[in-house]
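ok trying again, last paste got cut off:
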Amino acid sequence: QVQLVESGGGLVQAGGSLRLSCAASGRIFSINAMGWYRQAPGKQREMVALISSGGSTWYVDSVKGRFTISRDNGKNTVYLQMNSLKPEDTAVYSCKVRSANNIDYWGQGTQVTVSS
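nice, full thing came through this time. structure:
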C-alpha cells in the first residue's frame, strides 16, 4: 500500500506565500517524476510543476517565476513553494508521483485559497 500525504494548504491573501509538501510512504518502487497538479472549480485539472528524478523542472507558464518545485529523495517528499500568490491560483492542489515501474500514485488534495 502506498500513501501520499499532503500538507501546507490554506487561506492566504494575494501576494502571500504557501509551501505545500507531499510525502510518499509504503511499498513504493523507486520514484521517477514527482509533480503538482491543481483543479479550480469548473475547470479541468492542470499540471502546475514537475520535477524529474534528475532534478529537471517544468512549470506551467502562469506560475513561472513565482512557484518552485523541489524534492528530497531521502524522504520521498516533493515540495511546492508558492510565492506572490494570486486569486487565480485558488484550487485544490494534488501531488502525483510516478514509480520507476510507471505506476502513478496521487495524493488526496489540499485546498489553496487566495483572497483578493
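cool. The mean pLDDT is 95. The two ends are 40 Å apart (CA to CA).
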